[in-house]
Amino acid sequence: MPYNFLETSIEYLKGVGPVRAELLKKELNIFTFHDLIGFYPFRYIDRSKFYKVNEVNEVNEDLSYVQIKGKITGVHTIGSQRAIRLIAYLTDDTGQIELVWFKGIKWIKDKFKPDEEYIVFGKPTIFNKKFNIAHPEIEVVSEQINILGETLQPFYSSTEKLKSKGLDSKGIEKIMKNLILLSKEKIPEILSDEIIQNLKLISREEALINIHFPKDKEILQRSQSRLKFDELFFIQLNLINLKYIRIQKYKGHKFSVVGDYLNNFFYNNLPFELTTAQKKVIKEIRADIGSGKQMNRLLQGDVGSGKTLVALMTILIALDNKYQACLMAPTEILANQHYESITKMLKGLSININILTGSTKTSQRKIIHEQLFNGDLQILIGTHALIEETVKYKNLGLVIIDEQHRFGVAQRARLWKKNIIPPHILVMTATPIPRTLAMTLYGDLDFSIIDELPPGRKPVKTVHYYDSNRLRVLGFIKTQIKNGRQIYIVYPLINESETLDLKDLMDGYESIVREFPSPEYAISIVHGQMNTADKDFEMERFVKGETQIMVATTVIEVGIDIPNASIMVIENAERFGLSQLHQLRGRVGRGAEQSYCILMTNYKLTTEARKRIETMVKTSDGFEIADVDLKLRGPGDLQGTQQSGIIDLKIADLIKDEKILKYARNLAIKILEDDSKLKKEINIRIADHLKFINRNKSDWGLIS
Ligand code: ADP
Ligand code: MG
Prior knowledge:
The chain is an alpha/beta fold. The chain folds into 4 domains: 3-42 and 181-212, no CATH class; 48-145, CATH 2.40.50.140; 260-450, P-loop containing nucleotide triphosphate hydrolases (Rossmann fold), CATH 3.40.50.300; 461-619, 3-Layer(aba) Sandwich (Rossmann fold), CATH 3.40.50.300. The protein is 39% helix and 17% strand. The chain is built from 24 helices and 22 strands. Strand 6 and strand 7 form a beta hairpin. The longest helix is centred in the N-terminal third of the chain and has 33 residues, at 217-249. It is globular and about 100 Å long. Adenosine-5'-diphosphate (ADP) binds at residues 272-275, 278, 301, 303-309, 430, 454, 561, 590.
């Protein structure tokens, strides 16, 4: 088995042993040779270039690392006891630079020999207007061995605990070198010769050796390309494989007819024309649900693009085919709103529809359960409550999941058990996901995109004010209220301390009350620690127009639709992430009036916060915002990605490597189309490696 070597436990590597092995497991998840060799450096330093001392002194920019050859001409200590420092002078033919140690002095002090030539490597910093290098690495020129012929030195990230056991970057480099020396001809190739030739890739082994100890920049770059390709290719292969397994294993309900429910709705109840984008998406969905295969589709559309209507029409097709459908929302507020607006839209169509949430009364719940089970109830709207184990449907054909960024593969898989043949699934989101990320995070789904807003919407005007301009903002709000508009004022939730957050909110609320006194003004307040009844009561007042201002935390972020509310003031906007800001702004701009989004911030902003605010002011294009967000935060931080686990990229970058990703995905599709079980001789290496990387993934089993 070609993987035996790679599966060797890490403690058997020269220089590791049981203690370090334990730490490597705990701190870096490194258990085997395979894990270690896949622990790539985060950067490299060119060790072929030497600086002269005077070059260091002349450079004022922050030179990062330098390497200097010279002799040590004098060593002495300064200070006493606690604040003791060791100073050594490194001298070459152009001058002298100080080397400084604060720790390990005893050990270093007597190490230097006067005639020996040393290579000193470190980062110069300015101290007392002079450059010095603190805690440099030092090698003796005559002893320098460069067994692998590398000129670029790898740098590895480490942790405090690892460092305490000698596994800082240098220490990791040492054990890595031991591993690489052992690895020759032991690393299996994982792609077919054909792919390697077509893409002009270097071998897997060469790439793994040179990613750690590159001979030069060119081979490093080729190693990176090779390993990025491998990484993205196998992720895509896994996802697409998953989809194939699903298609082979599960049939889907065939919604073959469009009947009275949809037709009556369409001709009698639809209050407006569908947008072209809505039509296109409904067509895609119809083709999918009519095919006899199970639909698993992600519907993306910016806030206000009219996804609910698409959902409703899909639901009606399910009903026309004698199936039940459910629509799941992330919060009770949103579930209620969906229930109300959908009930209104279905007026006169005699459809049995109900709502189930955490606060549904037991007696009511019992009736719902019964009617679901005997099939009387056709549409159920609700929160997570509606997919609980105890909720049994007679014939569930369609599940729609609204605004659930955290609804990953595993949760979706649970839904499939709700009927003998799994229901069709439509996941809807207004949090735009950059395509590259979507391909990875939701790579097993099909995509539909609504890229158009209903006509007549005026773009929201977004402005940025510092707190010092508050009076102007308040004045503006007053004029708007006089003109009959309603206002949201949102405070951030910082999570650190709920009581503190609440205090911020309450302080804000009080100052707003002072500024907008009753009876002239009425103010609602909604936050996460209120009980549902109170929340709903306050929401209702605002919806009905009884209050002009809604002070809230981000609980109003998702989905709420109140067309007359045309101003969104976001306090401490610097504390919000971009997608959250975009979501919040999406709450306004839903009516005929000009809407505004006012971002209030501190005067002091971090570069990142400034970029976020600038982006918001500059664009309202959700996809552009998503891209900036991805660039600012990296994919690991994006909503929903952490727990997906599949996005834990070691070397590829979803932004920079978009081309590789697309190529890898297409190739994976092509290969599986041709050989869905990967049984052909040409795919044998791919099949072996796929098996190897999935050896511990029981969670995928849920689906397959
Ligand atoms: P989202 O995609 O954010 O969920 P909604 O479905 O809540 O958006 O729709 C936002 C608003 O746009 C709703 O008031 C809805 O009735 C309205 N709407 C949806 N489709 C159209 C359309 N084709 N023309 C006009 N208004 C529409
Ligand atoms: Mg919505």
